[in-house]
# Entry
Amino acid sequence: MHNQTQPNLNRSATEAGHNGWGLAPWSRVLCSCLVLLLVSGCSSYGVIYNEPGVDVEAGKTYSLKTWAQAKENSDFIFILAFSGGGTRAAAMAYGVLEELRDTPITVDGQQVRLLDEVTHITSVSGGSFASAYYGLYGEKIFENFEDEFLLKNVQKHLTVSVLRPIHWFTRKGRTDRAIDYYNKILFHDATFADMMQPGRPMIIINASDLAYGVRFSFIQDYFNFLCSDVRDFPVASAVAASSAVPVVFNPVVMQNYPGCPEPKVTPRVVEMAQHSDELTQMLAGLQSYADKEEREYIHFVDGGITDNMGLRAMSDVVLVSGGATQFINKTQRKIPKTVVVLSVNASTEKESGMSKSAKQPSMITSMNAMTNIQLHRYNAATVDNVRKGLNEWAAELSTPEHEVKAYFIEVGFEEVPQPQLKLFLNKIPTSFSLEPDQVESLIKTSRALVREDPDFQQLLKDIAAQ
# Structure
């Protein structure tokens, strides 16, 4: 389907950035409507999308344990992490899925696709559109996703919806209308129960608790804190929460129901928390959900606020479990031989031009610069922590008779070797509307970056040797 269309390298950075949201400059239309956005959101109440939990039959929950047992005999734990970045992130994620689909390997004497060995996909913001679509529809993503999302002007529809006066005084907020639109074009009222299909990886969509800064995953392991069943939760609502940039979108609101046992923390984890400020804060945030009166309603926004890489979901779960061995025991699967984390990072490095002039930067330029600095430093720290943790997991699980090998594969614009292509890619805005040549370049580039990554090539060699 992909042609050889050449990217328009002459498009200016200013032109490329004017229709972006999030980290890119806002569009002129969106800026002019900011007052209307604030006014229309002042008195609205969020629609509650989750229901009280019921007794769940063992083995049928949308939980890490259920999915691990489905792959209990696999020698792989293979995790894809899709970052935020609007349609740019979704296109890069899609390209990686294509490349894994087209990479044959031999497992137990049978030729399969590397994509078939993926066990988990964790995502935030723009990357969640690709992960959720693949979780629901599997192979159909390669037939329909480009037309249904990547090449569609989603941003135009959402902006027009904001400008429609009849919407300013209704109970539904901007995010609720976005959810309706995502259901119309992509998810068709599917719930997480619809994701529970044999052979598919577990999709972990992540958002941020606006009040407490907790990174929250839409899986049963987290829904237990809210006494709710994730299987009944709409996929479109989870994706909307994961991509709900504050101010531009309203939070997705969930009710914190009473009446269920509080999830227990093991003594080992309590002991570990005494030596880790990060684990202490994580536990405090999760345990805050036990206060059903003070925390009756939880407001979820863009997952990129607490982890724009989508990488921390699995590392947090392993940490809260008490380490890799405890996590394997808890999920009741065998120790794998190969642990892979493939990180798809759609963040860009934009030059604002302020260094070329003595002119004072605008407020928006200053805000974007500060956000970009914080984002890149946080992303770098996240990658370092996950890479270190991955090696520690492998060492902890290995024995003289059973070696566990770990691979960390990075896909991002920093690895693009061609200067002109890198410049073009870094000018693509964080937007829900991209040009066809931008989408084409993102898909082709992400495929090439995976294929040429040294750790990816080593992974294929080691699989062949086994």
Observations:
- DSSP finds 20 helices and ten strands in the chain.
- The longest helix spans residues 363-397.
- The mean pLDDT is 84.
- The longest strand covers residues 202-209.
